[in-house]
Amino acid sequence: MKPEVTAFRWVPPFAQGYVRDLRVRWALEEAGIPYEAHLVDGATLRSEPYRAWQPFAQVPAYRDGEVTLFESGAIVLYLAGKSEALAPADEAGKARVTTWVIAALNSIEPHAQNFLQLGADATPEMQGQLEAMLTERLTGLSDWFGDKLYLEDRFTAADLIMTTVLRELVDSGVLARFPNLAAYRERCEARPAFGRAMEAQLKPFRENAPA
């Protein structure tokens, strides 16, 4: 069967372009794998059949006749194991890609989300602490990255996940303090597959916008 990815039928404007199904759509586009989007709403998420597929009532969930998965990082890593467009064929290369996917999700994203979501309502002291912790992680990434183009010697699933984490920091201005990371994000988002994935996510939002 053609791979199926769950995605929201509509979300408010502030979330459009940032829902996590974008990661899976992008991976599928890079790999050249046709897929179908299974659009869901709140009622679907709360239903027993959907919770059997995705126990936390979130998107994306994925199935292709061989596996049934949830969590965007896990899905992208699964796809990377199937396509050399997303990871090197050798075991060492695949392991490095896995390391960077997990680093993006575990070492960078929690600090980015804490800064963005908690900082607005936090005391000035807490805001400073959240920003300092995020800055420390971004500094470590930036120093390691240097003048590289990608995390490997070419684009992989690791860059896909890292880019989706970094792009959420653009409006805050934090990413601009790290020119090499800002340029890296722009480079990855300029890929045609990213554009196709973004349009695929946004199209149903336009079609199902409240009157």
Number of domains: 2
Total of helices: 9
CATH class descriptor name of the largest domain: Mainly Alpha
> Major β-sheet, in short?
4 strands, mixed
Question: In brief, what are we looking at here?
Answer:
The protein has 211 residues and is of the alpha+beta class. It is built from nine helices and four strands. Strands 2-1-3-4 form a four-stranded mixed beta sheet.
Could you please describe the fold and organization of this structure?
The chain is an alpha+beta fold. It is 56% helix and 8% strand. It has 2 domains: 4-85 and 193-207, Glutaredoxin (3-Layer(aba) Sandwich); 91-191, Glutathione S-transferase Yfyf (Class Pi), Chain A, domain 2, CATH 1.20.1050. The protein is built from 9 helices and 4 strands; from the N terminus they run βαβααββαααααα. It has a 4-stranded mixed beta sheet. A hairpin with a 4-residue loop joins strand 3 (61-63) and strand 4.
